[in-house]
Amino acid sequence: MTLTRTTQELGVDAARLWDSLSTLGRIGAYPDEATGLTGVRRLALTDADRAGRDLVVDWFRAAGLEVRQDRIGNVFARRAGTEPGLAPVMVGSHIDSVATAGRFDGCLGVLGGLEVVRTLNDHGISTRRPVEVCFFTEEEGARFGTDMLGSAVAAGRIGLEEAYALTDRDGLSVGAELERLDQLGTTAVPMSTRPYAYFECHVEQGPILADNGRRIGVVTGVQAINWWEVTIEGRSAHAGTTPQRLRRNASLAAALITVRAEEMVDSGRWGALLSTVGRLEVRPNLVNIVPGAALLTVDLRNPDTAAMDRARADLRAYLTEVEERTGTRISVKETAHTAPVAFDPGMVDLVESTAERLGLSHERIISGAGHDAGEIAAVAPAGMIFIPGMYEGISHNPREYSTPEACEDGINVLLHCVLATSDQS
pLDDT for 348-387, tens place per residue? Predict the structure, then answer.
């Protein structure tokens, strides 16, 4: 397919895209007391996730796509090309969510890919290469503790049996839940046929584009991510009768770690480090008992590998100091560790030139969040498109919002990137 004036001016149906986002957003909807808004709770491999999967797969098939599913539950939907033996141009993201989500995170990339296919169908456009739209299992890591799980298995970074063995807080495993929901596909992993190119359109999940008045973010890469689950064993004791010198206070140890993580960021010694203690539990969690146990999670992010390694080593060393000070015993389970990813320069240039040609203001930006594109970049040239979010770019929250116009901008860039690459030999 040669780009003509007609295809150069081609655009997606913004109203149809918005309707798809809204319809999927009603699956797993819940009333969020903190915001007074309706949020989305569609944790991976729950009944709500299965309902969302079924809806999207129905849409795929209605668009004439051939659907297959792999052994970790990832779904791929293919639109044939005029030369079906060529590697496909793939578009994807995820439809699972955190427990307090909005409608856009991940879903824009999947439903945007579907809208690209619908637009090609509407205009009778054939592509040389097949075009595939996909969604990956447990991108968020919100249920089973390892983010980008499905794409990491597809790309070969995480083994299938290791993935199956992961469990949620109730002890339910990925493998068992895939089987329960009839989501164990037959396509082998890691993927045997590598995509010719992979694109993902996503909400920025930050304030930079909106603050700078840019309509498109040209993503250059993804920073490193490291997740820890820290378990602290102390000793429960009466709050009124146990002297300070005899206490082994697990909550004190947790507090010291939390403060240290914040101080590391503020010091600047570890570059552009970000650190978050997102989950904190103490037991027995009673007003008059010194806590005997605690569990917390630490999320470290850094675009610099060496700085991240130093931060990890220094925080590990500090845990020994906390043990000595509090008389507790601390163990760490590393639940996620991904290196920084630099996207293919040609893909970055293509996203940038496409935004330029469409008259959309843009800037290059590195992603602070992890994405499936970061995993697929290990097996194929990958590129990402960001669109701005409202309300300081808040995400993983019911207040997450991008305008219909912003969604249209991003998916139009996606459409023309797909058109450009799907005609290449």
Answer: 999 999 999 999 999 999 999 999 999 999 999 999 999 9
Parallel, antiparallel, or unpaired: how do β-strands 197-203 and 131-135 relate?
unpaired
Contacts of 138 (CB under 8 A, 6+ apart): 44, 45, 94, 96, 144, 146, 147, 149, 150, 174
Query: Measuring CA to CA, which residue among 112, 137, 145 is closest to residue 46?
Result: 137
Q: Contact at 8 Å (CB) between 318 and 332?
A: no
What is the predicted pLDDT for the residue at 345? 98
Helices (H), 217-361: 250-267, 305-326, 345-357
CA distance 200 to 178: 25
State pTM to two decimals.
0.90
Q: List, in sequence order, every residue forming a beta bridge with 39; answer none if it has no partner.
A: 30
Q: Residue 127 has which token pair?
A: 């592509």
Calpha distance 256→60 (Å, rounded): 50
pLDDT, tens digit, for every residue of 73-93? 999 999 999 999 999 999 999
Residues 6 or more apart in contact with residue 71 via CB below 8 angstroms: 153, 160, 184, 185, 186, 187, 188, 189
Cβ neighbours of residue 135 under 8 Å, at least 6 residues apart? Answer: 53, 56, 74, 75, 92, 93, 94, 95, 106, 110
Return d(Cα 113, Cα 158) in angstroms, integer. 26
Looking at residue 72, its amino acid is I
Give pLDDT, residue 424.
83
Number of H helices, E strands in the chain: 13, 17
Q: How many CA atoms lie within 13 A of 50 on its CB side?
A: 11
5-27 pLDDT, tens digit per residue, is 456 789 999 999 999 999 999 99
In the structure encoding, which two tokens stand for residue 425, read together? 């030999």
Assess contact for 245 and 258: CB atoms under 8 A: no
CA distance 95 to 316: 34
pLDDT at 6: 52
**CA pair distance 109, 367, nearest whole angstrom:** 15
Dig out the tokens for 205 from the structure: 């999940």
Residue 326 is predicted with a pLDDT of 98
